[in-house]
């Protein structure tokens, strides 16, 4: 029993010694990256020892541990790497000699945001560390469009912006900087980040309306002038547009009626021509049959004449024979 207990203590001491000697360490805090720029994901072995002869595997824990970068047998082996990371990952082989297995990720994308695992394996031990990455993306400047104009001289505005990460704040402001409430607000997220669409209705007395998008220390803003002087052109434009739409619809109806009438006329004309061809063909056949009947009658008359002539000759010969007798 003493021998077994002593063996367990020795094994425990060896395990503790190795764990204390070889440890994979990542950053204590989340790594912040900016879309379009490069970022370093820290990972190293403590105390510093060379990992040149070891296996270094970076993967995405939040994507079923898919491969991000693999170093093995003194070379990078990324044949099974996630397609979106192709050509964007790099390990500094010189730093591997100092135990630094940090991953350099270039041209950061919003889709790179997530949890990564740095796994290092030698012939005698393995360990790993996690790295959380947050990607900040400044989207496109907001775009204000006129969505409508009612009879009360109220202007319906819409503001859109996309490509932000994380989710930003979109707000309307009047000319005095007072915040206005959006009537509707839509928010969507895809691989490129967040996109927003907010609407608002303003009165003619609000001469300037701002649409502002804010994300931490970033801010983009667009201004539209909605004074009374600018309302008339909008109203005239909308009226003219409505009239133009009505005229286009009427023209389309007339064109469709003309095309249908022309098609019906062409079909009727083709039908008449077909019937005329049939009548002409029937007349030709009738004439041909009449000609054949006429030829038969002529032949019959000729045969009858020949027969009558022969009959007369025979009668003449008979009369002459009786005379000589």
Short description:
This protein has 325 residues and is an alpha+beta fold. The chain has helices at residues 2-21, 93-96, 228-324; strands spanning 23-25, 31-34, 39-41, 44-46, 55-60, 66-72, 75-76, 89-91, 103-105, 114-121, 126-136, 143-149, 155-164, 169-173, 179-180, 184-190, 193-202, 208-215, 218-225. Among the domains are: 21-136, Immunoglobulins (Immunoglobulin-like); 143-226, Immunoglobulin-like (Sandwich).
Describe this structure in words.
The chain is of the alpha+beta class and 325 residues long. The protein has 3 helices and 19 strands. The longest helix has 97 residues, at 228-324.
How does the SSE layout of this entry go?
Layout: H1 2-21, E1 23-25, E2 31-34, E3 39-41, E4 44-46, E5 55-60, E6 66-72, E7 75-76, E8 89-91, H2 93-96, E9 103-105, E10 114-121, E11 126-136, E12 143-149, E13 155-164, E14 169-173, E15 179-180, E16 184-190, E17 193-202, E18 208-215, E19 218-225, H3 228-324
Parallel strand pairs: 2-11
Antiparallel strand pairs: 1-4, 3-9, 5-6, 5-10, 6-7, 8-9, 10-11, 12-13, 13-17, 14-15, 14-18, 16-17, 18-19
């Amino acid at each position: 029993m003493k021998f077994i207990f002593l063996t367990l203590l020795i094994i425990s001491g060896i395990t503790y010694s190795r764990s204390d000697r070889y440890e994979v360490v990542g950053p204590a805090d989340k790594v912040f990256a900016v879309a379009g720029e490069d970022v370093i994901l820290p990972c190293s072995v403590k105390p510093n020892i060379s990992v040149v002869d070891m296996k270094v595997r970076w993967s995405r824990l939040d994507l079923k541990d898919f491969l991000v970068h693999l170093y093995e047998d003194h070379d990078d082996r990324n044949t099974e790497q996630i397609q979106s990371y192709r050509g964007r990952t790099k390990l500094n082989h010189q730093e591997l000699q100092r135990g630094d297995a940090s991953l350099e990720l270039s041209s950061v994308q919003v889709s790179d945001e997530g949890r990564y695992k740095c796994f290092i394996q030698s012939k005698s031990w393995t360990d790993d560390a996690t790295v959380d990455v947050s990607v900040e993306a400044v989207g496109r400047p907001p775009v204000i469009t006129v969505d409508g104009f009612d009879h009360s001289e109220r202007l319906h505005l819409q503001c859109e912006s996309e490509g932000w990460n994380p989710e930003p704040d979109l707000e309307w402001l009047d000319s005095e900087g007072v915040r206005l409430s959006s009537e509707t607000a839509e928010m969507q997220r895809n691989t490129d980040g967040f996109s927003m669409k907010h609407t608002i209705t303003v009165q003619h007395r609000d001469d300037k309306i701002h649409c502002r998008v804010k994300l931490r220390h970033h801010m983009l803003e667009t201004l539209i002038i909605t004074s009374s002087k600018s309302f008339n052109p909008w109203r005239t434009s909308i009226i003219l547009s409505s009239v133009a739409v009505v005229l286009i619809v009427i023209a389309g109806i007339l064109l469709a009626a003309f095309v249908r009438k022309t098609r019906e006329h062409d079909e009727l004309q083709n039908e008449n021509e077909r019937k005329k061809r049939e009548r002409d063909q029937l007349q030709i056949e009738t004439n041909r049959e009449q000609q054949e009947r006429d030829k038969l009658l002529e032949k019959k008359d000729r045969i009858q004449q020949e027969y009558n002539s022969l009959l007369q000759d025979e009668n003449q010969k008979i009369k002459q024979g009786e005379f000589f007798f």
